[in-house]
Design brief:
By secondary structure, the protein is an alpha/beta fold. It has 3 domains: 119 residues, 3-Layer(aba) Sandwich (D-Maltodextrin-Binding Protein, domain 2), CATH 3.40.190.10; 81 residues, Periplasmic binding protein-like II (D-Maltodextrin-Binding Protein, domain 2, 3-Layer(aba) Sandwich), CATH 3.40.190.10; 89 residues, Double Stranded RNA Binding Domain, CATH 3.30.160.40. Helix content is 33%, strand content 24%. The protein is built from 10 helices and 13 strands. It has a 5-stranded mixed sheet, with helices on both faces. Helix 8 runs parallel beside helix 9. The chain is globular, with a radius of gyration of 19 Å. About 2% of the residues have low confidence.
Length: 309
């Protein structure tokens, strides 16, 4: 078994907190394991001023880290699972997925006003087309402002009065210790999260059996099954990280329930549906849900969804 491990991570505050969580878990299971941290700047970190829609391709927060894995400069990568592409590069594998934190989106608003209490014309910031279309469906009389930046910078735009509120992931704001800033947890029925939201992914080389063995105990099977269904759904829909597609899998007993949402680019048509099955059929559940959507809409609609990704 390895006695040394090099872990790659983005250098953002949230990414480092998440990576330290993984390091602590690995050291608890393997007290003699020496772990080195390598901070890697990704395309998404370098091009902070560009909206996601202007980024070419997908995986803008993981590609450089995956290159470091393939080159042997690091042994393990820690990602927010929602940042990963649905197709892992040849030679790499998804080694483990941690137990999912709260998958919901939250509203942080000026004056502690809940979404229903915000006045018409209120300016709500988000960098996610998925959140934007769901927000518009629920509150068509607010202004959606496209923003980028880390959680801290987004919250500052509310404190400064530049925005009346922002919508961010609950998991990130909680891991940063900023949960006291949360005004409202948005209901899953109205705000389905991004695929993989709230879960951390551990990626390694597929032939690195020692690293795979080290991280295997960190895998949380119900979360693994849930996100497997979500990622299969997203892959079958042909979507990417900027596509207005959402999904959430939940395992209760011997049933995996997958809820999905797909929208055209401007949110004029939003579709939702559900598929269920046994947890060990996660991949097939995701594909079946995608087929429901593909059977229900026109080729032009799906083309529009794919174009936005």
């Amino acid at each position: 078994m390895k006695t040394r491990l090099t872990i790659g991570s983005r250098g953002s505050k949230l990414a480092l907190i998440q990576t330290e969580m993984i390091i602590a878990a690995l050291k608890k299971a393997n007290p003699r394991l020496e772990i080195n941290l390598s901070k890697i700047k990704t395309t998404g970190d370098r091009e902070r001023n560009k909206p996601f829609d202007d980024m070419e391709g997908s995986g803008i927060f993981v590609k450089e880290i995956e290159t470091a894995l393939l080159d042997g400069r690091i042994d393990l990568a820690v990602h927010s699972l929602k940042d990963m592409m649905t197709d892992v590069p040849r030679g790499l594998c998804l080694a483990a997925v941690t137990e999912r934190a709260d998958p919901r989106d939250v509203l942080v608003s000026a004056g502690g006003k809940k979404l229903a209490e915000l006045p018409p014309g209120a300016r709500i910031g988000t960098g996610s087309p998925r959140r934007a279309v769901q927000l518009t469906a629920l509150r068509p009389n607010v202004q959606v402002q496209s923003i980028r930046g880390n959680v801290d910078s987004r919250l500052r735009r509310v404190s400064s009065g530049e925005l009346d509120g922002v919508i961010v992931a609950a998991a990130g704001i909680i891991r940063l210790g900023l949960q006291d800033r949360i005004t409202e947890y948005l209901p899953i029925d109205s705000f389905l999260p991004a695929v993989g939201q709230g879960a951390l992914a551990l990626e390694a080389r597929a032939d690195d059996k020692e690293t795979l063995a080290l991280v295997a105990p960190l895998n949380h099977m119900p979360t693994w099954q849930s996100v497997t269904a979500e990622r299969a759904f997203l892959r079958a829909m042909g979507g990417g990280c900027t596509t207005p597609i959402a999904a959430l899998g939940t395992v209760k007993g011997d049933t995996l329930r997958l809820s999905g949402m797909v929208s055209d680019v401007d949110g004029t048509r939003i579709l939702k549906d559900v598929e269920e099955g046994k947890p060990d059929e996660a991949e097939q559940i995701g594909i079946r849900l995608a087929r429901k959507f593909l059977d229900a809409v026109s080729a032009a609609f799906i083309a529009g969804v794919k174009k936005s990704g």
